[in-house]
Predict the structure.
Amino acid sequence: QQQVKQSPQSLIVQKGGISIINCAYENTAFDYFPWYQQFPGKGPALLIAIRPDVSEKKEGRFTISFNKSAKQFSLHIMDSQPGDSATYFCAAGGSNYKLTFGKGTLLTVNP
Amino acid sequence: EAGVAQSPRYKIIEKRQSVAFWCNPISGHATLYWYQQILGQGPKLLIQFQNNGVVDDSQLPKDRFSAERLKGVDSTLKIQPAKLEDSAVYLCASSLGLMDRGETQYFGPGTRLLVL
């Protein structure tokens, strides 16, 4: 059972554009929603995270938008740069401290 | 600060052989995780340790996979015997261990396993 659905599978954006990746979850017990960034040959690294008590969190060019009623959250990358080219994973965590990851989105930012 | 260390980085074995992976977490981190990442998918938790005790191993195929974390520091993950479908990247992660659901997990570079 896939508890976290992520889309799109891949995304191509021009430099300076906005990248948007969406995730939806099923388990209402989830209450922690991080995004991880993974470069080839490296392990995932935490990018930004949100809890359901806020609808938006911004850190630099990266913003998470959260819609609790729709059970959806998204990552927005403003002014996308070629260095942002990587695979992005959304995840969800709950009281059992276990993270459930989405399948990932391969982002390519063209110069 | 040194990150999570894993070895080997790559391993190629024949099916039915055994293999072991090693992980050294960030110093002072009480919680250690092993994940399996199949190509094109997100990481899937196999086992979670808190110090040297198992917190969650519900997705560990116990007929062939085993893991230990002696002395609450380093950990090894073993597969015996390996199957073709075990080909994946095996990621180790660690966190402080405060058992806070918002605790950051720090990942190592992974071990890429190919079973032929």
Notes: DSSP finds no helices and eleven strands in chain A. The radius of gyration of chain A is 13 Å. Chain A has a mean pLDDT of 93. The CA atoms of residues 69 and 102 of chain A lie 19 Å apart.
